[in-house]
């Protein structure tokens, strides 16, 4: 079967789609022109660098390089996830632990069950998908925790004054924050195949793989996204809530009120 390719000329012409977005931004006075241009240029550079790196790693096929790239992906995912926290600083270690733990555990299950082989061609794309999804979920968890602690600080202080421990006082906040963070992943799983044909499935079909085989891969991807997001957000939630309290188990009002203008 003929392998689909895209020429440099076709790729250059496709930039007209970006020009449409720039025109709409200018026409509607959205002031997004610079952001669109910058993000487009950055995406091109990053993808080209990633393409050359992956080509080299796929050719070398060395386990140590594969693990290093997996860690690099988790590191960048954690770095971006911690930026979502508006109330707490220094959450990068927490994000790294949560995302790396969820990613590695999911990869371990997939490899041990022989769903995928421990080769860079399979491990690295899968890592990108699950770490990227975990990044979004953990970032949402950080943001949701901060907002809920801020809005419910009076109730928390009342519970603490009545003798509740920080864990008991924070239980509903942790639970609701984790739940809210998982909603995008759960909703995506609900609509897969009906509303959307995800990237992996579409890519396999586009490459000439039998649709039923592509469906099996996508089902596996759906399972691992749900698992990684759940594990990562649970870890993030329980590792983060304690940072809203000081050593005396008092609510840190300085952290909650620093965003108030």
From TrEMBL:
Pfam families: UPF0014. It is found in: Membrane. Its main location: membrane. The chain crosses the membrane at residues 6-24, 64-79, 91-112, 124-145, 191-209, 221-242. It is a multi-pass membrane protein. The keyword Acetylation does not apply. Belongs to the UPF0014 family. PANTHER family: PROTEIN ALUMINUM SENSITIVE 3, UPF0014 INNER MEMBRANE PROTEIN YBBM-RELATED. This is Iron export ABC transporter permease subunit FetB. It comes from Providencia zhijiangensis. The lineage of its organism: Bacteria, Pseudomonadati, Pseudomonadota, Gammaproteobacteria, Enterobacterales.
């Amino acid at each position: 079967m003929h392998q689909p390719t895209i020429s440099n000329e076709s790729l250059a012409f496709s930039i007209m789609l970006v020009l449409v977005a720039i025109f709409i931004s200018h026409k509607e006075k959205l002031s997004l022109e610079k952001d669109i241009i910058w993000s487009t240029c950055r995406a091109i550079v990053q993808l080209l660098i990633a393409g050359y790196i992956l080509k080299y790693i796929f050719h070398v096929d060395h386990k140590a390089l594969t693990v290093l790239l997996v860690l690099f992906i988790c590191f960048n995912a954690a770095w971006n996830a911690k930026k979502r926290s508006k109330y707490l600083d220094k959450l990068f270690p927490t994000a790294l632990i949560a995302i790396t733990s969820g990613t590695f555990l999911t990869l371990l299950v997939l490899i041990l069950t022989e769903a995928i082989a421990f080769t860079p061609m399979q491990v690295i794309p899968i890592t990108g998908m699950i770490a990227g999804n975990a990044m979004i979920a953990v970032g949402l968890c950080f943001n949701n925790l901060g907002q809920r602690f801020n809005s419910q600080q009076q109730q928390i202080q009342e519970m603490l004054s009545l003798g509740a421990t920080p864990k008991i006082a924070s239980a509903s906040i942790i639970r609701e924050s984790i739940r809210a963070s998982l909603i995008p992943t759960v909703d995506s799983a609900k609509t897969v195949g009906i509303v959307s044909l995800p990237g992996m499935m579409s890519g396999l079909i586009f490459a000439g793989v039998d649709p039923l085989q592509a469906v099996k891969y996508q089902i596996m991807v759906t399972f691992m996204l749900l698992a990684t997001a759940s594990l990562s957000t649970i870890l993030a939630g329980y590792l983060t809530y304690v940072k809203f309290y000081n050593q005396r188990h008092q609510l840190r009002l300085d952290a909650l009120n620093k965003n108030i203008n």
